[in-house]
């Protein structure tokens, strides 16, 4: 008993010491999220297959996401691990670079070190969430729970080394050398060159112009150009935009798309947001292209660390590229609609 | 058992003494939480202004100069990063931004911190916590019941910060001679004739 008390006292003492020391050194940050969802497709099929929220009529898992961060002086690291379908075989490659649900075992979303040479210039090396696109893997950082076609088609992570220079609070430039998309280790060497120009023309408006050239996740040398921007117009109104174009080598593959994200916050805890997306698959070698339109209406209802995301989504696939089925589960259908309810807890 | 009681009492006393130390900031005539102080000073106006500039430069991660009016009224914007803590685990959960005003008068100066607004953080794609919006919620706004305790804590943290900031500022303006910012360390050259 005495030992327990002594241990508890020591813990309290160390806590107090950490609290005092916080003024000069950053403590170890531990954060993360947990998410789960239910989805019902009105044609009783898992029709809409964009990343995450795929299971039909099932209470299913997203992931548990755990992140560690520590800063000591000018140096810092981030290590982020994910467990569960969303955070493993749906978004993280296995050791062999595949997405096999059986063999998947790395669980790493982010693993990098960062060094701030000055207030303006930092360098980062490791395996990082991609700088391309509007939506991200963590459900805690997205407004909608299901994801866009643009998100599913672009890179998830980029391993490499990058330098970022801030000219001012309004302009910064990142340039980096990367492996192929979504690879822990390079197969064909450090083959990609990427960059990001950030501009913030007015208070509340930030735009990222991104470019990446190299070996993509489809095995082609390709170039992707991406614009991601968001403007907090008033306390209640926010609007976001994502537009991207990917052209593969010899133009044999590619896509382009645009998604608009208007959002309205009724209170700090209740908000409603729409995602309207147009996505076009470029025709291979000059062949016919195919397009999809998608409308997703999501609510965000927050209570403490918990966010409920009720969502309805309507997709139109006029060229039958998505394999949507009617309720008889055999006849192809041009459209699909679904309802989902997700719960995301962040800590 | 005695030890447990002693430990429990110690924890209660610590919490009680913390609660006793911090009170909410008073509100100004427009209803905004404000820390306001007038300080008698024998330091000349020019020196005060130079020392203030030095203070702002040294604390540039915390407060940034917005404007200065011919050395009389200086306005800066600052932020207080709020840490979400559970025993030894902690990460930033938001920031409170504020406006700092500083004015020099005859034989005295005054300063006030006001326009306190809370901005929640969210995690970005790289695992870092960043502001989720650029427009803050004024601390004067009455919260919902479910958020009342947390909001009260933000108000107390703002009050505690303002008192600490005021002490640091006054100490700097009174005690500090204007020392230049540290120069790069000179290399020691040895064994030279």
UniProtKB/TrEMBL annotation, chain A:
Keyword Signal recorded: yes
Signal peptide range in chain numbering: 1-21
UniProt entry keywords in alphabetical sequence: Signal
Domain of life: Bacteria
Name the record gives this protein: Outer membrane beta-barrel protein
Organism encoding this protein: Pedobacter ureilyticus
Automatic annotation (TrEMBL), chain B:
Chain ranges of the DUF4468 domain: 53-118
InterPro entries: DUF4468
Domain of life: Bacteria
UniProt KW keywords: Signal
Signal sequence coordinates: 1-19
Name the UniProt record assigns to this protein: DUF4468 domain-containing protein
Source organism: Pedobacter ureilyticus
């Amino acid at each position: 008993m005495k030992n327990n008390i002594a241990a508890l006292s020591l813990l309290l003492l160390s806590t107090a010491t950490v609290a005092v020391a916080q003024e000069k050194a950053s403590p170890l940050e531990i954060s993360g999220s947990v998410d789960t969802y239910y989805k019902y497709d009105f044609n009783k099929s898992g029709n809409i297959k964009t990343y995450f929220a795929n299971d039909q009529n099932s209470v299913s898992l997203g992931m548990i996401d755990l992140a560690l961060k520590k800063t000591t002086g000018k140096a810092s690291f981030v290590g982020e691990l994910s467990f569960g379908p969303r955070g493993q075989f749906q978004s993280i490659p296995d050791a062999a670079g595949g997405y096999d649900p059986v063999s998947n075992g790395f669980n790493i979303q982010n693993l990098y070190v960062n060094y701030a040479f000055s207030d303006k210039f930092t360098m980062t090396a490791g395996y990082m969430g991609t700088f391309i696109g509007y939506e991200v893997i963590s459900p805690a950082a997205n407004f909608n729970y299901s994801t866009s076609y643009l998100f599913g088609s672009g890179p998830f992570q980029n391993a490499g080394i990058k330098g970022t220079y801030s000219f001012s609070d309004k302009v910064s430039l990142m340039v980096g050398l990367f492996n192929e998309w979504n690879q822990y280790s390079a197969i064909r060497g450090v083959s990609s060159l990427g960059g990001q120009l950030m501009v913030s023309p007015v208070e509340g408006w930030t735009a990222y112009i991104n470019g990446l050239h190299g070996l993509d996740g489809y095995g082609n040398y390709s170039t992707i150009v991406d614009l991601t921007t968001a403007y907090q117009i008033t306390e209640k109104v926010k609007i976001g935009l994502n537009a991207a174009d990917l052209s593969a080598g010899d133009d044999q593959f590619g896509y382009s798309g645009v998604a608009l994200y208007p959002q309205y916050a009724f209170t700090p805890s209740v908000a409603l947001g729409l995602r309207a997306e147009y996505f076009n698959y470029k025709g291979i070698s000059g062949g016919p292209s195919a397009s999809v339109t998608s409308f997703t209406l999501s609510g965000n209802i927050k209570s403490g660390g918990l966010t409920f995301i009720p969502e309805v989504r309507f997709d139109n696939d006029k060229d039958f590229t998505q394999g949507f089925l009617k309720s008889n589960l055999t006849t192809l259908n041009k459209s699909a609609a679904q309802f989902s309810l997700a719960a995301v807890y962040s800590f | 058992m005695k030890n447990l009681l002693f430990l429990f009492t110690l924890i209660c006393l610590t919490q009680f003494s913390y609660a006793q130390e911090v009170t909410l900031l008073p509100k100004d005539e427009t209803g905004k939480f404000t820390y306001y102080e007038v300080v008698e000073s024998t330091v000349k106006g020019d020196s005060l202004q130079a020392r203030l500039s030095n203070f702002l430069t040294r604390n540039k991660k915390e407060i940034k100069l917005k404007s200065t009016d011919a050395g009389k009224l200086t306005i800066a914007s600052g932020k207080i990063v709020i840490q979400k803590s559970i025993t030894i685990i902690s990460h930033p959960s938001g920031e409170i931004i504020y406006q700092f005003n500083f004015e020099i008068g005859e034989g005295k100066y005054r300063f006030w911190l006001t326009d306190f607004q809370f901005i929640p953080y969210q995690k970005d794609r790289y695992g870092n916590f960043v502001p989720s919006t650029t427009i803050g919620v004024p601390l004067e706004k009455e919260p919902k019941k479910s958020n009342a305790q947390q909001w009260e804590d933000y108000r107390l943290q703002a009050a505690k910060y303002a008192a600490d900031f005021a002490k640091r500022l006054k100490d700097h303006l009174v005690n500090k001679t204007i020392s230049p910012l540290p120069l790069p360390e000179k290399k020691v050259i040895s064994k030279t004739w």
